[in-house]
Amino acid sequence: MSATVFCRKYQKDLPALSVAPLPGQKGQDILSSISKQAWDEWMTHQTRLINEKRLKVFQPEARSYLQEQMEKFFNNEEVDQIEGYVPPKED
C-alpha cells in the first residue's frame, strides 16, 4: 500500500510522492502537502512554460518566476498559460 498525503491542490487524500522533489525545507513542504498527481501535473505545466517562454533555468529570474508559478499552481490560483494553449477536455 502506498503512502497518501492530504493534497493542498486537490484538498483530499491522494498518493504521495516517494521522495522530496526539491532539496531542503521546500522539498519537505512539498513532500508533506502535495500529491504525486499534483506534482506530475505541475512538472508538465512547468516544462510547457520553460519551452514556450524559452526560460533559461540557470538564471535566477527564471527560477524565481517558476517558483512563483508553482506556488500559484498548488494554491489553485491563476497561473500563466501558454498562448494558444487549450487544456484537454475532461470526459
Automatic annotation (TrEMBL):
SUPFAM superfamilies: YggX-like. Transmembrane segments: none annotated. The keyword Iron applies. Keywords: Iron. InterPro entries: Fe_traffick_prot_YggX (IPR007457), Fe_traffick_prot_YggX_sf (IPR036766). Belongs to the Fe(2+)-trafficking protein family. Could be a mediator in iron transactions between iron acquisition and iron-requiring processes, such as synthesis and/or repair of Fe-S clusters in biosynthetic enzymes. This is Probable Fe(2+)-trafficking protein. It comes from Marinospirillum insulare.
